[in-house]
Design goal:
Number of domains: 2
Shape: globular
Number of strands: 18
Helix content: 10-25%
Largest sheet: 7 strands, mixed
Distance between the termini: 22 Å
CATH topology of the largest domain: Spore Coat Polysaccharide Biosynthesis Protein SpsA, Chain A
CATH superfamily of the largest domain: Spore Coat Polysaccharide Biosynthesis Protein SpsA, Chain A
Strand content: 25-35%
Structural class: alpha/beta
CATH architecture of the largest domain: Alpha-Beta Complex
Order of helices and strands: EHEEHHHEEEEEHEHEEEHEEEEHEEH
CATH class of the largest domain: Alpha Beta
Number of helices: 9
Length: about 350
């Protein structure tokens, strides 16, 4: 990507910058004059400017962050900063002139080929991991930066060219529906109401005969920052019935692990052992033919349904993504990391 596409002059109008940011990946602009960095501009900066009384005909310099933290003087420094959550790092020379903007391989623009497949989002759970906030708001509406969790997920699929959303709702469903009635942006949504909680997979039984093509199925707390067209290509090439998108997780135990025998005699000591394993991100590609095996209104979690399908001889594929490409929005401790990964501020 040519870094100059992320540069704007200081007199560019706010309404023009809004259109530019909406079309960009990553969602950020840098204000520059004669190549010199003057500030950074995100959706959050624009919203704060407008809420504070700014006008869409104003210029970007009035709205931008004039002391951006994301500045590097070398590629190595930029790579280190990106790993800490920033989404785009301008590299500047000694005169503060921008020589490049590092976005990293994983932040490159998604394929603009239209995928033209639907997305099913399970948004019916109580979100117990986000308690006590979910006692007031349903998990899909918990904000991460300027947008709720569910809209971050939907924008990502919309950018990939998916052609509609089937949203399964239950807990505080009227609040979720009301949110989408009141926002300016329109999404093509078909609502599916659960009468009783059906687990992470059972709600799909309500969509039998309504889905005729391959579809994405995702829980409302998982956002994958990778090229969805590559996942679809993998799924179809391997003729999978279900493809699980999994992420590598690397964990270091910060203690010495002691192993003993049955007589309480020391066998070995592992000092701060490290483990790497694959975890389920709760994002899937699914063929509609598997839905015929679902019992309507049966409560079942989707991993258990996958196990049953595997026993019936269905082909279950695994598509692996990097650990940093998976944002698990269902954990309170992770929300700030997600905000940094999505906004870089």
């Amino acid at each position: 990507m040519d870094y100059r596409k992320l540069l704007v002059e200081k007199d560019v109008r706010i309404k023009d910058a809004m259109k530019m940011i909406d079309a960009l990946e990553p969602k950020i602009l840098f204000v520059a004059e004669d190549g010199k960095l003057m500030g950074s501009l995100t959706d959050g900066d624009l919203r704060r400017y407008l809420i504070g009384g700014g006008n869409v005909d104003g210029n970007v310099y009035d709205a931008c962050n004039r002391a951006p933290k994301r500045i590097a003087h070398s590629l190595e420094e930029a790579k280190e900063m990106l790993g800490k959550g920033f989404i785009a790092i301008p590299i500047v020379d000694k005169d503060n002139r921008i020589t490049d903007i590092y976005i990293g391989k994983r932040r490159s623009v998604q394929s603009r080929n239209k995928l033209n497949i639907p997305v099913v989002i399970n948004a019916g759970g109580k979100g117990k991991r986000l308690d006590p906030f979910t006692k007031i708001l349903p998990k899909p509406l918990i904000p991460v930066g300027d947008l709720p969790i569910i809209e971050h997920i939907m924008k990502r699929y919309e950018d990939a060219g998916c052609n509609g959303f089937h949203i399964i709702v239950n807990y505080k469903k009227e609040l979720i529906k009301s949110y989408f009635k009141e926002i300016d942006r329109e999404y093509p949504i078909t609502w599916t109401d659960e009468k009783e909680p059906l687990g992470t997979g059972g709600g799909l039984s309500l969509l039998k005969n309504k889905l005729k093509d391959t579809f994405f199925f995702v829980c409302c707390d998982s956002l994958i920052l990778t090229d969805y067209s590559e996942i679809l290509k993998f799924h179809r090439k391997n003729q999978n019935d279900i493809t699980m998108i999994c992420s590598e997780k690397h964990i270091t135990i910060p203690y010495g692990i002691v192993h003993k025998d049955d007589n309480n005699v020391l066998e070995t000591i592992e000092e701060k052992p490290e483990y790497t394993f694959l975890t389920n991100t709760a994002m899937y590609l699914v063929e509609p033919n598997v839905l015929k095996d679902m019992k309507k209104n049966e409560k079942i979690d989707f991993p258990e349904f996958i196990r049953q399908e595997q026993e019936k001889g269905k082909k279950i594929g695994i598509y692996s993504v990097a650990e940093e490409d998976w944002l698990d929005m269902g954990q309170m401790s992770e929300l700030e990391k997600m905000r940094l990964a999505l906004y870089g501020e």
